[in-house]
From TrEMBL, chain A:
Residues 1-22 form the signal peptide. It comes from the Eukaryota. It comes from Spizellomyces punctatus (strain DAOM BR117). It holds the Pfam family ECM10. This is ER membrane protein complex subunit 10.
From TrEMBL, chain B:
Belongs to the EMC1 family. Coiled coil: none annotated. Its main location: endoplasmic reticulum. The keyword Transmembrane helix applies. Residues 1-16 form the signal peptide. This is ER membrane protein complex subunit 1. Residues 17-401 form the EMC1 first beta-propeller domain. The keyword Membrane applies. GO terms for cellular component: EMC complex. It comes from Spizellomyces punctatus (strain DAOM BR117).
Length: 210, 1004
């Protein structure tokens, strides 16, 4: 058991060292419309080990408006397809309607989902628009956001939370007996003091009868 | 304010059980055992008993009088029942897969006497057993291990592993000798192979293959015997042969032995008791032949269909029964006393084959009647897998055991009483009809409607009073019209054996039943709800073989083909992968269109007409679908549909999710299409609102990734991943991993998922930290959000976000809620919602330990969705259990609740969901193996109709927020009526007084 833990620790350290030495990965980005063949669009750089969002970026070679120029995009069912390819066997694709992409003023979001080894296995491609209405242009500049997503830890039952706790996270101090029950004790004391005791019967004799 | 008050009222914690007199009043339970694979119909004097071992791994003693079980033992689903024999000590069973159990059960009580286990071989499931003269049990397990067990204690007396190339399936004891019968693979056909063993020591005496032993299959081998010899018969490739066991070279042709032509062995009578009689088919007749060489009786007319034989040994005689098919509406039974070779009689028994298919097996019981004549009962198993008991020319009882293999069910609302329906019909008028009707005709029609309403008023008052005084359930007549509360419906079950049964939900009575031979049903869709002119219609979807799917349209009230003339009632397609009910109607029939996705990536319409195509093509731009091979698959694909130049509809792939790290789909959740959402948001304690993320295309899905063979393997790790996937874009909005989570055992599915509105609940088994995979610690890789959190932490301590795997093996339920934003009062900045937009849902999650094993999970359903939902659990211990959604709230505060949380009424977090016996919907009833639970809304918003099935069928009503719209049973109607009467009287008196005063004032 100890040996297994030791081995796991060594492997973990090796993996961490490997990831620390890892260089940002460059992926080729291609695009197409509907069934047409993919053509180069730019490149995507991502670094699964970097905590900074800016470490993951897209570098454009062919702006989308240039790519769409001269094409008939009036058909609302036309799909703009994006494909990401890499030397490490990565080949992911996703699509959005062309009209939505145009309505978003080419503000797009590429999300790479990483597996347990930090390799991308799925891509989401979403845009900053909810309908194809291009009449309400806000004059925003095109933007390509690159995000990395890993599986988050699912919630587990907090079996150790049975310990009583307070909003500040510290257990409440145990109050003294008097502090806890003073509102019972005080009225009883007052009643006792107010009522006083009855006259004691004379010693050795029975109480007087009327 | 009023709404807030109502919401508070609904949210009040309600936990209510039922009173003794309420048990069975609004619920019903059908106890089933499964299709019998082993039957022992015994008689001792005046008492007959029916022992069965079934395909659903149940052992039971059935009462022949009622069909109810006297006792039943429900084994685990993975504990396959391989062999059962009835001996002098009781019922002995062999069952299991990886671990084989040989058990002795007390025949009268069903109590377990002893259990002996041994290692099993999944690739060799054959097992058999026999009894020695002293009552010991000799078992043959995996076709290779022979063990003698003490009949009284189950202890092993000896065990012998065969080292042979033959496969043995049967074992017989004859005196001191054991015979193992099997086959040995030869060049063309398998050949009969025999091992002779010493029953006392377990020593193999010899193994041999008799001459001419080539058979087509091991089912062609039969064993019969008498006191002196054991005879082995087999239908050889060309002829039938007989061999006396132990005499190696002694093989005779059956034709020569009995002096007949073209002999074919049909069956052996009572093979368990080594009876000497066998049934032989010879050209155009069947013979009862008795060893060594006598023909006892001849049944003529072998061409008759059916020819099922049964035998009974009682009253010191052996009787043989031959059942043949009559006209399709009757069975013909010929009874013969084979001991005295005398035909007793031929009887006709009414039997409608359309309902259950032909008889597959029959078991006979013969008994003396009071008048001295002979009576008989026949227990039959029909092609659909159900059982019936026939006596005195009638069916005494029927058990729909086929429904233990029911794969789908659908609720059908009954038509309203004609009065209301007439009004609906008027409102539902077609434009052409509106144009053609004159205003006088319309007026007359309305007058007629009102007249009918007035005429039916007394009946309505009677029905109302019956409901008020709780006597609505006492009538026995089946009224196929909707009731006041909407609890009377029809539920149609479709089974994998081709059986379709409709029950009324009020009392569980059979409305209709049908059998479709050779069809394995997997889906039922309600394609038309009922209006007076149109009966409700359902479509059944099933597979005939691996390349053909069939769709049947039936009238849901009668079970007849729809349309009645039979045209287009059945449609045949290539293999169908998915069937979807479209929100489009066929204008003529008012039936919903179905889209069928074929294995060939084509989409078909049903029914397919030019009008239907037109409607479908208008719908196409918004039609997205996803396909998966279901549980066990590792990918999910999204598609849209386009019309190809040849006019066909084809699938076009839009996205694909291939799960990483060897993940396999374990459970899929999907929001019900009939679900109603009552509120767009959740009101918090400070009066702000968290808006729900109500994306109809969101799919919750759970996958599992394991290493090693099982929990007992040192290399075993297991992790469950929960996904939220948008099925239009394939975007993954949430991915959470539950380390150490998985199935209890590989063959016990333990991951269940339900999804509704803006939330999902997943249940799984926690194997503990030792089963959590060790990998690169992702938590050490900080994201920008983590950095931001760290910065925030400096200002204010935040709650811990990492979750440790609990070191406690058990079931857990994780619950998730999705909101448009983490901030209250914040919404998506648009009037429209698009799956392609980059705004993702904010997910709040929490997890709870649950103390019972969960076999199935489902949700209640109500008309408007106002009532709090209840998560219904089928528990392994045989209960249907309800967990109120309030307990599964992910916003339950850990630690002391704040003032806002107290104001909101959320319960403080507790790590465990305690088992509350009051929430057991099936109260004391034992409802084992619940695999499916289906709910339907009633006309009462508080009440949901729920049916659970798997082995048994159990129907109950659930009111998760208590019956807030129904007056309690103890309500004092008398006081209410008296108060009303007093008020009316008071008003009348006061009115008179006021008038008098007014008049007097005027005179002044």
């Amino acid at each position: 058991m100890h040996f297994r833990r030791l081995l796991e620790s060594v492997l973990l350290l090796a993996a961490l060292a490997a990831t620390a030495l890892a260089q940002p990965t460059v992926l080729e980005v291609l695009h197409s419309i509907d069934d047409q063949p993919f053509t180069p669009r730019g490149s995507l750089v991502y670094d699964p080990t970097s905590p900074k969002r800016t470490a993951n970026k897209y570098e454009s070679e062919v702006p989308i408006p240039d790519f769409l120029k001269g094409r008939d995009t009036s058909d609302r069912s036309l799909l703009y397809r994006v494909r990401v390819k890499g030397n490490n066997g990565v080949d992911l694709s996703a699509a959005v309607p062309v009209c939505l992409l145009q309505a978003s003023e080419y503000r797009e979001q590429l999300t790479l989902h990483l597996d347990s080894n930090g390799g991308p296995w799925h891509m989401d491609y979403l845009v900053d628009a909810t309908d194809c209405d291009t009449s309400r242009k806000l004059g925003r500049s095109p933007r390509t956001q690159v995000l990395l997503e890993r599986a988050v830890d699912g919630p587990r039952p907090k079996l150790d939370q049975i310990v009583e706790s307070t909003p500040d996270g510290k257990p409440a101090k145990e109050q003294s007996f008097l502090a806890k029950y003073w509102y019972y004790i005080v009225p009883i004391m007052i009643i006792l003091m107010m009522g006083g005791g009855g006259e004691e019967p004379p010693q050795g004799g029975a109480p007087a009868r009327r | 304010m009023l709404l807030l008050l109502l919401a508070c009222l609904l949210c009040t914690p309600v936990f209510s059980a039922i009173h003794v007199d309420q048990a069975g009043a609004t619920d019903w339970h059908k106890e089933l055992v499964g299709t019998p694979s082993h039957v022992f119909y015994t008689r001792t004097g005046q008492r007959s008993q029916l022992f069965v071992g079934t395909e659903r791994n149940v052992l039971a003693l059935i009462s022949p009088k009622t069909g109810n079980s006297v006792w039943r033992q429900v084994l685990e689903p993975s504990d396959d029942l391989l062999s059962v024999r009835l001996g002098s000590h009781g019922l002995v069973s062999i069952s299991g897969r990886r671990l084989i159990h040989t058990r002795l059960w007390d025949a009268q009580t069903g109590f377990l006497v002893w259990d002996q286990s041994s290692d099993g071989n999944v690739s060799k499931p054959a097992a058999d057993l026999t009894f020695t003269g002293g009552g010991d049990v000799v078992t043959l397990i995996n076709g290779e291990t022979v063990t003698r067990l003490s009949g009284e204690e189950g202890s092993i007396l000896w065990s012998s592993k065969l080292e042979t190339s033959a496969t043995y399936r049967c074992i017989y004891a004859h005196g001191r000798v054991l015979y193992l019968i099997g086959t040995k693979q030869s060049r063309d056909y398998p050949e009969v192979s025999i091992i002779q063993m010493d029953a006392i020591t377990g020593r193999i005496i010899e193994e041999y293959q008799p001459p001419n032993g080539a058979v087509r299959a091991s089912e062609d081998i039969f064993v019969a015997g008498d006191v002196e010899h054991v005879y082995l018969y087999w239908n050889g490739v060309a002829r039938a042969y007989r061999h006396i066991l132990g005499r190696q070279a002694d093989v005779e042709e059956v034709e020569e032995v009995f002096g007949i032509e073209s002999a074919e062995i049909v069956t052996v009578l009572q093979p368990e008791t080594m009876h000497p009689d066998i049934i032989i088919r010879a050209k155009d007749k069947y013979l009862i032949a008795r060893n060594p060489h006598t023909v006892v009786h001849t049944f003529q007319r072998a061409h008759l269909e059916g020819n099922i034989f049964a035998t009974a040994h009682s009253l010191g005689k052996t009787h043989v029964l031959r059942l043949t098919r009559g006209s399709g509406k009757e069975l013909r039974a010929e009874l013969v006393d084979s001991t005295s070779a005398k035909a007793i009689g031929t009887y006709s028994i009414p039997f409608i084959e359309r309902m259950s298919g032909p008889v597959q097996k029959a078991f006979l019981d013969v008994f003396p009647k009071k008048d001295g004549s002979i009576g008989f009962r026949i227990f039959i198993i029909t092609a659909d897998g159900s059982t019936k008991l026939l006596k005195d020319g009638a069916i005494v009882w029927t058990k729909e055991e086929a429904l233990t293999k029911a794969s789908a069910a659908v609720y059908v609302d009954l038509p309203e009483k004609s009065l209301l329906s007439q009004v609906h019909d008027e409102l539902n008028e077609q434009p052409e009809e509106t144009a053609s009707i004159t205003s006088i005709e319309r007026y007359m029609r309305r007058v007629r409607s009102h007249y009918n309403k007035v005429k039916a008023l007394p009946e309505r008052i009677v029905a109302m009073s019956k409901y008020l005084f709780g006597s609505s359930n006492t009538h026995d007549d089946m009224d196929l019209r909707a009731d006041m509360l909407g609890v009377r419906k029809v539920i149609v079950f479709a089974s994998k054996t081709g059986k379709v049964v409709a029950y009324d939900t009020e009392r569980g009575r059979t409305v209709w039943e049908r059998y479709f031979g050779g069809i394995s049903f997997w889906q039922v869709e309600n394609i038309r709800t009922s209006v007076v002119k149109y009966p409700p219609v359902i479509t059944l979807v099933g597979n005939r073989d691996e390349s053909t799917s069939l769709l049947y349209r039936l009238n849901a009230l009668t079970g007849d083909d729809y349309p009645g003339d039979g045209s287009n009632a059945t449609s045949e397609f290539g293999l169908i992968r998915k069937v979807m009910r479209l929100p489009l109607e066929e204008p003529e029939d008012r039936t919903h269109l179905l889209a069928l996705v074929g294995q060939d990536s084509q989409v078909y319409l049903h029914p397919d007409s030019p009008v239907a195509r037109g409607a479908f093509e208008t719908f196409l731009p918004t039609f997205h679908l996803y396909l998966t091979e279901g549980v066990g698959s590792s990918e999910l694909g999204g598609f849209k549909v386009a019309q190809s130049p040849d006019g066909n509809y084809k699938l076009i792939s839009t996205w694909k999710v291939e799960f990483p790290d060897d993940e396999k789909i374990a459970a899929l959740g999907e929001v019900s299409k009939h679900e109603h959402v009552a509120s767009l948001g959740r009101v918090l304690g400070n009066r702000s609102v968290l808006y729900k993320y109500l994306n109809p295309n969101l799919l919750a899905l759970a996958t599992i990734a394991t290493t090693g063979t099982g929990p007992f393997d040192a290399q075993f790790t297991s992790v469950v991943l929960l996904y939220l996937i948008d099925t239009v874009t394939g975007s993954i909005h949430y991915r959470a991993e539950f380390k150490g989570a998985g199935h209890v055992l590989p063959d016990i599915p333990s991951i269940h998922l339900v999804q509704s509105e803006n939330w999902a609940v997943v249940s799984y088994w926690n194997h503990g930290p030792e089963a959590a995979p060790s990998q690169i610690d992702q938590s050490t890789i900080e994201t920008e959000q983590d950095l931001k959190k760290k910065r925030k932490k400096k200002r204010k301590p935040a709650a811990a976000t990492s979750f440790a795997v609990p070191d406690a093996k058990g079931f857990e339920m994780a619950t998730l809620e999705f909101y448009e934003s983490a901030k209250p009062d914040s919404r998506l900045e648009s009037n429209t919602f698009s799956s392609f937009q980059s705004k993702r849902p904010h997910v709040i999650a929490q997890s709870y330990a649950f103390p019972k094993r969960i076999n199935a999970m489902a949700l209640t359903a109500t008309g408007a969705g106002i009532t709090t939902k209840e998560v219904l659990l089928g528990l392994a211990e045989g209960h249907l259990y309800g967990v109120n959604k309030r307990l599964l709230d992910p916003r339950r505060p850990v630690g002391a609740p704040t003032a806002d949380e107290k104001e909101e009424g959320v319960l403080p977090y507790r790590a465990t969901l305690d088992f509350n016996p009051k929430e057991v919907a099936s109260y004391h009833l034992y409802v084992p193996r619940i695999e499916h639970v289906l709910s339907s809304a009633t006309k009462l918003e508080s009440t949901s109709l729920t049916i659970a099935w798997g082995l048994d069928i159990f129907c109950a009503r659930r009111s998760p927020s208590k019956a807030f719209d129904v007056l309690s049973e103890g309500f004092n109607y008398g006081a209410l009526l008296t108060t009303i009467a007093a008020l009316i009287l008071g008003i009348w008196v006061a009115k008179g007084m006021a008038q008098r005063k007014k008049l007097n004032d005027l005179w002044k």
